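Posting for a labmate who doesn't have an account.
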Amino acid sequence: MLAPSNIRSDRLLEAHPIFVTHDIDQARVEVGRVFCAHHLQQTQAAQQLDCHMHRVALGALSLNYLCYGADVDIRPGCLEDFYLVQIPLAGYARIRYGDRMVESDCTTASILSPHRPVAMHWQGDCAQIMLHVPRQLMEQQCRQWLGQDHAALEYEPALTQRTGPTAGWCQTVVDLARNIDAHGNGWLQHPAAAASLQEFLLHGLLIQQPYRGATPAAESASAVLPRHVRRAQEFIDAQAEQAITMDDIARAACVSERTLQAGFRRHLGTTPSAYLREVRLHRVHEHLRFAADNGLAPSVFDVAHRYGFFHLGRFAAYYKMRFGETPSATLKHGGRLPSDPR
């Protein structure tokens, strides 16, 4: 006998329910109690909402399972007090984080930082494991491990879960939920075990997922950067379209390459070359968005070449990881979500 269509084989943490509802208003209130107040709207009236939320505490963190069973738009604005990792087990979600967009599915998870407004569309088949991290804890751990006094972190929102260094981390989070389903969470009641797990998860995220150390809410953080790091940033920002080398950047910063590398790693959590690539990717993205919004049709190759990307396959991979879409997709819809009317 076939199972009813609304029974999901991918549900996790079922022994730890928060609520089940077919009512959109109740879903909004209940999810808001766990995360934050938000706008929630069902977009397909013919669909039956079947919302399930489950939750397990992991020390100060929490592991959550959420599905809606119908297409919904979710607009929480800025999260403000927490970071949220969303790992799809099934289905698809489109996420706008500030001016960036992530197409999220079983190959690409997402991490939302507190600092920029968020808007999401979840398709009805979307089911996600979500790791909730208090902002204060994330910034405290960053200060402890990286020695940053101003540790307001803004992560790159696209988090690869099938390839690359973050794939194993994402799988660990999902496996943790499955382990709790199979064996219970009694061991997490021990403070030492919960603290060790918490440290493992946060440290893994910090060392593997790219991030920026300054946010709109913490602009004063840039003032405490060493002079040579600020000089290097300014040089890169001004010369991003030029054929600059590490030696050029180090000479502009008036330090050795070794000192420059150490300064970027300690204070920005990245390298000069990765920072240069990030600046160039952002310039390409803005160029393509401007072209799309103004009815222009430049060659993606020409734009990439202008900003120092000569290997198109590698460029496209970096671009999709950074913005959650291909360059041609940006050129097609510009600053709009694909379904946005205009």
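Reply:
Got it, the structure tokens are right above this. The chain has eleven helices and 14 strands.
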